[in-house]
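Q: What would this complex look like in 3D?
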Amino acid sequence: MQTLMTATTDYTELDGYFAAADAKCVLLVCGGSIRKLRLNTYFETLEQRCGIRVVRFSDFNPNPDFSSAVKGLATYRANGCDMLAAVGGGSAIDVAKCIKLCINARDPEQALHQPPVPNTVPFLAIPTTAGSGSEATHFAVVYENGVKQSAEDDSLLPDAVLFDPDALKTLPPYQKKSTMLDAVCHAVESYWSLHSDADSMKDAAAALRLIAANKDDYLAGTDTGCRNMLKAAHFAGKAINVTKTTAGHAMCYQLTMHYGISHGHAAALCVKALLPFMTAHPDLCIDTRGAAHLHQVYTEIAEAMGCTTAAELPTFFAAFVDSLLPGIETPAAAAELDMLTCSVNADRLGNHPVQLTADTIRQLYAQILEKEQMP
Ligand SMILES: [Fe+2]
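A: Here is my prediction, written as structure tokens for the whole assembly.
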């Protein structure tokens, strides 16, 4: 069970958490952007407040390579650390998870390919975007020699999370919008996933309701809007912690690689393209709970987002995305469509409730890239 805390102006809740952790030295995994945050001063003064030394580790990139975690482990050991904290978006939290994975590994450099050896090192996560939900999941996403890899173990779930609205206030507008869209896609994809259950659907619905109710306040930078958007992203993260993501995420990675748009932006364009096809093809439903279950899911997603019926959901969702961010205006050549289609991860498609052939995926990409419309 995670401890969830909401930041107060003087971070007394963090003092309580660190005092209870009984640690000597914390490895703080963070990007350079922490220097703009109030939290930076908190960690600068942690030793005098709680007697815990702070060693910072920032030697990683936005789509982190596993070698960064191996370097982080060396810093952890060299300084006698006995606790982990991550302050950042998905990347900082993923690196901290991989360091945790390495701590007991027989050969840390091979930790991604060995059975995990769990440990109880205290692990605090403080998300600085409301999107990835990484603080709510037990898996880490990293790259190894350019190949995307995923590590998975219950011990990778942070044992404590701090929601600090102040951390969202300096985010540039594009990042604010695209990370929110990432959370929307996590909730929607988890809702319709073949692996959904009553709890994950409840969390996905809670995320969508919070997003709909707080979108404007969050974009305006109010304290309440930012706090509730952090909670929404966390609920969506809890939902994908059970179900994982589906075709929207399977299709979005190559759009980020080839068109330079952010992860959440790319995922939203994919879900926007998927929805009309999925709702028009109940005949292709492969969920054993049946097409009626899937229709009910569309209805519940619609209701949670503030739209009246499942039939209106594709148009409503498209308008929601379009009101925030533009589409991709570079039409793709045929060879690019082939490349994008081949790149889709078959494992992630395995969670998707509607059958998608290579031809369908190619047409969906063509639609996303505004080359042609789906028939
Ligand atoms: Fe995502």
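A: To summarize the key features: Residues 198-220 form the longest helix (23 residues). The mean pLDDT is 94.
Q: Very helpful, thank you.
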